[in-house]
Amino acid sequence: MKKKVCVYIGRFQPLHNGHVHVLENAFKNYDGVIVLIGSAAKARDIKNPFTFEERRLIISNWALGNLHLTADTNFAIRPIPDQPYNDAKWIQSVQENVAAAVQDFGFQNPEIFVTGSERDDSTWYLRCFPQWGKDFKDPHPIGEDLNATALRDRLFTDADSFMSWKDIPECTHRFLENFITTPTLSVLSKEYNFIKAYKERWAVAPYAPTFVTADSVIIQSGHVLAVERGAFPGKGLLALPGGFVKPKQRVKDAAIEEVIEETGIRLAEGKRAVEITRDILRGSIVDYEYFDDPNRSLRGRTITFAFLYRLDDTKPLPKVAGQYAPLEDTGGVEGIVETAHAMWLPISYARANPQLWFEDHHSIFDVMLGLIKD
Predict the structure, then answer these.
(1) To 10 degrees, what angle do helices 52-66 and 170-179 make?
(2) Mean pLDDT calculated for residue range 321-349
(3) From its phi and psi, is residue 279 left (phi > 0), alpha (psi between -120 and 50) or beta?
(4) By C-alpha distance, which of 160, 155, 164, 165 is closest to 188?
(5) What is the pTM assigned to this prediction?
(6) Which residues sit opposite 114 in a β-bridge?
(7) Quick one: pLDDT band at residue 144, thresholds 50, 70, 90?
(8) By C-alpha distance, which of 144, 181, 202, 155 is closest to 48?
(9) Environment class of 173 (CB within 10 Å of its CB; exposed 0-12, middle 13-18, buried 19+)
């Protein structure tokens, strides 16, 4: 008889009783269970507050504490990084991880089934594997209204109440008991309040706003120019230099101005240094692309245009540094840090550390690198 393997894909931010409901069914009815944890390499934010390793540990503790696991239990937990601009690459990653886990189980050509809760467009990925069977479950046990977003809202607004939450398993309780004492929660709570206030300011608009930004991917001598964000959201994370397009700016002009404002880069000396730097940057643009994942920014619908620059590889890397925000952007208030640092990162390091990057900037960087012709 063919073995049957169940694949459960989710973010588990955090593990709650709805997830447990699906997992219990999987362990009851299948010979092997594979849990694929999504958004596995993202920096912490209010949508993804817990790292892959933290979520892996919570799920492992649940399984150890609630199932009669033995050395023969076929159970695997694997990370799946996001690929917001390459669905095919994401699907391939899922397929490869499932194949590797099945090989570890020692199964030959098992029947594979995808499980989960088919709720709305956010679970589009459940339909991406026509070669596998489907075993979808109700999103929660009868009588329970479970929502990970609501759980995170509670965490950031009333963390001390977590012991009274009845919609998470004991292993999640134990994890949160330690998590709420860490500085991480304080930082995320500040970001949560920033995002909430930001959205409230736009709530009076007659329709949901769409923002436009411009970012720059500047390459020289195997390095990429990056900044460390100096304010919320994403304070302390790496980002591509960029910002909002002003009402009377063209997108390309905005990209160039943001590079100069956020990094202090100068590609010439003398009285006309800034003007000449603008001209050199403009002449160094070799390609551009737009990025419009509807969920790319927690602040709201934000479409960004990214420009790819190639500077002269034979010259020393230009000096750059963190900058204060321009007075026109702060209402005349001085001393507001826009970028804590600016730096040239080796491309190999930048690509190898997606967990250090703000929002989808690592994905943008990766896509733009693919546009380099030589």
Answers:
(1) 140
(2) 90
(3) alpha
(4) 155
(5) 0.93
(6) 7, 134
(7) low
(8) 155
(9) middle
Position 145 pLDDT exceeds 90: no
Q: Alpha-carbon distance 267 to 273, whole Å? A: 7
Q: Which of 261, 359, 354, 263 is nearest to 302 (CA)?
A: 359
Quick one: pLDDT at residue 162?
Answer: 81
Pairwise CA distance, residues 26 & 9, whole Å: 12
Map out the domains of the chain with their CATH numbers. Answer: 4-183 (3.40.50.620), 211-369 (3.90.79.10)
Residue 127 or 270, more confident: 270
SS (H, E, C) the chain: CCCEEEEEEECCCCCCHHHHHHHHHHHHHCCEEEEEEECCCCCCCCCCCCCHHHHHHHHHHHHHHHCCCCCCCEEEEEEECCCCCCHHHHHHHHHHHHHHHHHHHCCCCCEEEEEECCCCHHHHHHHCCCCCEEEECCCCCCCCCCCHHHHHHHHHHCHHHHHHCCCCCHHHHHHHHHHCCCHHHHHHHHHHHHHHHHHHHHCCCCCCCCEEEEEEEEEECCEEEEEEECCCCCCCCEECCEEECCCCCCHHHHHHHHHHHHHCCCCCCCCCHHHHHHHHHHHCEEEEEEECCCCCCCCCCEEEEEEEEECCCCCCCCCCCCEECCHHHHCCCCCCEEEEEEEEEEHHHHHHCHHHECCCHHHHHHHHHCCCCC
Share of the chain above pLDDT 70, in %: 97
Of all residues in the chain, the percent with pLDDT exceeding 90 is 83
Residue 122 confidence (pLDDT): 61
pLDDT tens digits for range 7-46: 999 999 999 999 999 999 999 999 999 999 999 999 999 9
Two tokens at 363? 């994905």
Amino acid (one-letter) located at 161: S
> What's at 15, amino acid-wise?
L
For 225-278, the pLDDT digits (tens) are: 999 999 999 999 999 999 999 999 999 999 999 999 999 999 999 999 999 999
